[in-house]
TrEMBL record:
Keywords, ordered alphabetically: 4Fe-4S, Iron, Iron-sulfur, Metal-binding, Molybdenum, Nitrate assimilation, Oxidoreductase
PANTHER family, sorted: NADPH-FE(3+) OXIDOREDUCTASE SUBUNIT ALPHA, RESPIRATORY NITRATE REDUCTASE
Identification of the protein by name: Nitrate reductase
Group of enzyme by EC: oxidoreductase
Gene Ontology CC annotation, any one: oxidoreductase complex
Cofactor names: [4Fe-4S] cluster; Mo-bis(molybdopterin guanine dinucleotide)
Domain 4Fe-4S Mo/W bis-MGD-type: 2-58
Source organism of the structure: Alicycliphilus denitrificans (strain DSM 14773 / CIP 107495 / K601)
């Protein structure tokens, strides 16, 4: 019998409700929860395929299912019992504290933990250990938003809600691409545009993204010039009389000093620094101020912003400058208006609530305030909480690399992929005396450096809460038991703490600090910590959250949460006034120069999530972007002698990687875009010195904002050179689902044998699962390596088509399978000259009859003797609809854009499921009209 469990999606910060379908202890399906106010039943392509990540055949291959211990670095990890693992960790922490002090321990945790997990880790570090060396990967995405809110409004509290999208007259989207990064929020934007055709949408982004394609005004500013743009808009508002002097006088401070500073942001200066025309600057300022055509009253403006502002060495200033625009025009505290920071991870907000950053305490308390430290110490029953700020994320790994931090405990995050300057990160992981990785997935890059691996439960197996971007707390519920010996994260922390407390003299005599037997007990303690604070949730209890999600604040006596903040014009500062913060405009930390003339931009893909340990197990989610690609402007590629698909060296001051290049009209000349998902699990190879290449973050800089300590992951100066790697290998194979992920892991272990290699999945709904390897080298490798690769792709044994010329480094293998009166290509390997992949890939993936092409398959460089129908790039991952089918149908379409889009939906079903492909469909429709 099918069971239905209400829970929350584990991907982005939109916080969508899901209904998990399960049967006999197995998750069998997932649907959007129509009763959840965040998504009202909608799911994006990632959320809609969550059940596929829980397939038993996948779990058995990719999950960490038991505690493991390495006797020495580089040795194979061996299974151990939970009691042994917990005792080992407690004893190692105690020994480290005795010998080096508590600050020799560092805990690095994650915005994908539940709030109760987060709370337990925070209390463990600051209350039990006595160190503030705990930080979260939310430092990489949200700390500038935190610092910006606190500097201007006095508290880390987004003042708006999702309903404001429908009530805004102008949407100002800065440094965000919600069409891809927050798709269900983008569906609300599309709804708002349909309901109100007069809605103005401004998008500030160097790239012409799917979000920018919907905009009335796309401000394609130069990378890192955000402050000049925002100051220029404010200067225009002042000159044109579009500010709200009454609101400024009644509710703010610091206005005069800021006015003097923004005076230098003239239209000419903005043009010089940003590349934004004066007319566009003026239009953006007018729409933002809400005074178009002399409207009275002022029309509301809502800003939506994310990593483009945050991941900057000026991240706090960027956030504050945008908030200044709202304050100057009174665009805050009313429906449809306010500065709305979009949270990146599902529970980055929850981590902020419990104080899991190195400079914060529970319930938004300030670590530097002795009264706040005393309040937390009293709540926890400890003598004191340490006063000195702990190490933030990058600082923690710098300290480990320098030998100051001896023990690292890493939970639910993958710093060997996600942190900038991977050369430094890997030095830290190698130098640390003991590294603990607590994760659900065995194949994450960081796991290779672990001395102890602890298996954690994940989505569909856990109980607790998360908080989304609009301050809405939702329940997360378990639909099935955790597989193997995986435990909930809070339970692991609690069990280690109980073993550790008797080993710490300063804590041994205290009553047990971790008495929890379930997440509800932890929630209750967290709830009490918020009493009287800006995020007071003492009016909520577990039963209320069981009934429906609620927004904070929700203090005792208040039946419902609070949708909008600051409606009364009173802010969370000592004088209840918002603050204008003085700033000087600036640029990126690492500008381009003659040696490194190109600006690297990073960002997200539509259908993947972070390091892809979860989303990357679903073959259909690879369809939209099947392998790592560096996008460049066509003129830059021509100047460098690059054609689409050519391999190129991308080099910064910190490292180098090799990736295929592809021309894109989304970028200006001088820019390169490489998605942040490509770590060395997918984009690999080794340098000439044998050092493993570490994916995109081998290139990024650890430079960071001095206030928020958030690194500038968005920008780095690089150079690009064509990679002369004449020997190439390309292989694809359809494999059984129960085999494909182990084969992928084995192929990943071989990628270091090449200067360039990438390993990815392919497939679409109903086709099965495929595995692809692409590699490049200066010369042919040892034949044994080619044989190992062939064996992993089921290209050994009888019944193969085979060609071998070892002297010239040429190998060909193909396996055909009789089906439906034809011979279908099941697996193929081309080594030496792999140029024929252009026609062999569709032969395999489209299941064409390969019988007439048997001879051509074995001929190096052979052209297809007949035309092969190809699907083109996949547009709709949910229905597996590709470009060519859409283009063919559009050629026969008549009518306007809406009618053509509807016909695509009716006949091909694209755009009818999650809607993530709709912006691309709309672009194709517009092209057909032209």
């Amino acid at each position: 019998m099918t069971q239905h469990t209400r829970s929350t999606c584990p991907y982005c910060g939109v916080g969508c409700g899901v209904l998990i379908e399960s049967e006999a202890g197995r998750i069998t399906g997932v649907r959007g929860d129509p009763a959840h106010p965040a998504n009202l039943g909608r799911l994006c392509s990632k959320g809609a395929t969550l059940h596929l990540t829980a397939r038993p055949e996948v779990q058995e291959q990719v999950r960490l299912l038991q505690p493991l211990r390495r006797a020495a670095r580089g040795a194979a990890a061996q299974p151990i019992a939970w009691d042994t693992a917990l005792d080992t960790l407690a004893q190692r922490i105690a020994a480290t504290v005795r010998q080096h002090g508590p600050d020799a321990v560092g805990l690095y945790v994650s915005g994908q933990l539940l709030t109760e997990d987060y709370y337990a880790f925070n209390k463990f570090a600051k209350g039990l250990l006595g160190t503030n060396n705990i930080d979260t990967n939310s430092r990489l995405c949200m700390s500038s938003a935190v610092a910006g809110y606190k500097a201007t409004l006095g508290a880390d509290a987004p003042p708006a809600c999702y309903e404001d999208i429908a009530q805004a007259s102008t949407l100002f989207i800065a440094g965000a691409n919600p069409a891809w990064a927050h798709p269900i929020l983008f569906r609300r934007i599309e709804d708002a545009r349909r309901a109100n055709p007069a809605l103005k949408i401004i998008v500030c982004d160097p790239r012409r993204t799917d979000s920018a394609a919907l905009a009335d005004l796309h401000l394609a500013l130069r990378p890192g010039s955000d402050l000049w743009l925002l100051h220029g808009m404010l200067r225009c508002m002042v000159e044109q009389g579009w500010t709200d002097p009454a609101y400024i006088a009644a509710h703010t401070s610091g206005w005069t000093a800021l006015q003097a500073q923004v005076a230098q942001a003239t239209p000419e200066a903005v043009w010089q620094h940003c590349g934004i025309a004066p007319a566009d600057l003026l239009q953006a300022a007018r729409w933002f101020a809400g005074v178009e055509s002399g409207s009275d009253p002022r029309r509301p403006t809502l800003s939506l912003y994310c990593q483009g502002l945050n991941q900057s060495a000026r991240g706090t200033d960027n956030n504050a400058a945008l908030i200044h625009l709202h304050l100057a025009c009174g665009q805050i505290g009313k429906p449809g208006a306010g500065p709305f920071s979009l949270t990146g991870q599902p529970n980055a907000m929850g981590g902020r609530e419990v104080g899991a950053l190195a400079n914060q305490l529970s319930a938004h308390r300030n670590l530097a305030d002795p009264r706040h430290r005393a309040e937390v110490a009293a709540l926890w029953g400890v003598p004191e909480v340490p006063a000195a700020p702990g190490k933030a994320a990058v600082e923690m790994f710098e300290a480990a690399a320098e030998g100051h931090i001896k023990l690292l405990w890493i939970a639910c995050t993958n710093p060997a992929h996600s942190l900038p300057d991977q050369a430094l990160v890997r030095r830290a992981l190698q130098r640390a005396e003991f590294v603990v990785v607590q994760d659900a997935y065995a194949g994450v890059a960081t796991a290779r450096f672990a001395d102890l691996l602890l298996p954690a439960a994940t989505w569909g197996e856990k109980e607790g809460t998360v908080t989304n971007s609009e301050r809405r707390i939702s329940r997360v519920r378990a639909a099935v038991p955790a597989p193997g010996q995986a435990w909930a994260d809070w339970r692991i922390v609690t069990q280690v703490a109980r073993r550790l407390q008797p080993l710490l003299p300063q804590r041994a005599a205290l009553p047990g600090l971790f008495p929890y037997e379930g997440p509800e007990a932890i929630w209750n303690e967290h709830r009490e910590s918020t009493r009287g604070r800006d995020l007071d949730i003492t009016g909520l209890d577990w039963a209320l959250l069981e009934a429906a999600p609620r927004q904070w604040p929700c203090p005792t006596g208040q039946a419902e949460g609070t949708a909008r903040l600051y409606a009364d014009g009173r802010f969370a500062t000592a004088d209840a006034r918002a603050r204008f913060v003085p700033q000087q405009p600036g640029g990126v930390a690492e500008p381009t120069d003659a040696r490194y003339p190109l600006a690297l931009l990073t960002g997200r893909l539509r259908d993947q999530w972070h390091g892809m340990s979860r989303s990357g197990t679903v073959e259909s989610l690879w369809a939209h972007a099947g392998e790592p690609v560096a996008q460049m402007h066509a003129a830059d590629m021509a100047r460098l002698g690059l054609r689409d698909g050519d391999l190129a060296y991308l080099t910064s001051r910190r490292g180098s990687i090799v990736a295929p290049a592809r021309a894109s009209d989304e970028l200006a000349s001088g820019q390169v875009f490489l998605p942040m998902h490509w770590g060395d699990e997918v984009l690999g190879g080794a340098s000439s010195t044998g050092r493993r290449l570490a994916g995109v973050n081998a290139l990024t800089t650890a430079a960071r904002c001095p206030q928020s300590l958030q690194p500038e992951l968005k920008h780095a100066a690089i150079k690009v050179l064509k990679a002369e790697l004449p020997w190439s290998l390309w292989a694809q194979a359809w494999l059984p689902l129960a085999q494909v992920h182990r084969a992928r892991e084995a192929l990943q272990s071989l990628m270091d044998a090449f200067p360039f290699a990438s390993c990815s999945l392919f497939g679409r709904p109903g086709t099965g699962t495929g595995l692809q390897l692409r590699a490049g080298a200066h010369h042919a490798p040892d034949e044994a390596l080619v044989e190992r690769i062939a064996g992993l792709l089921d290209l050994q044994g009888a019944g193969l088509l085979s060609y071998r010329d070892a002297r010239r480094g040429q190998w060909r293998r193909a396996r055909l399978q009789d089906a439906d009166g034809a011979q279908r290509l099941q697996a193929v390997l081309l080594a030496g000259d792999a140029s024929a992949q252009a026609w062999i890939a569709p032969l395999l993936q489209e299941r064409h009859d390969a019988q007439p092409l048997r001879r051509a398959l074995l001929q190096p460089g052979a052209k297809a003797p007949q035309a092969l129908a190809t699907r083109g790039a996949t547009v709709c991952a949910c229905e597996g609809v590709a470009e060519n089918a859409i283009a063919d149908l559009l050629r026969s379409c008549t009518g306007d854009a809406a009618q053509r889009l509807q016909r695509l939906k009716n006949e091909l079903r694209c755009g009818t499921q999650c809607g993530s492909c709709v912006p691309q469909l709309q672009r194709m429709v517009q092209a057909s009209l032209a």
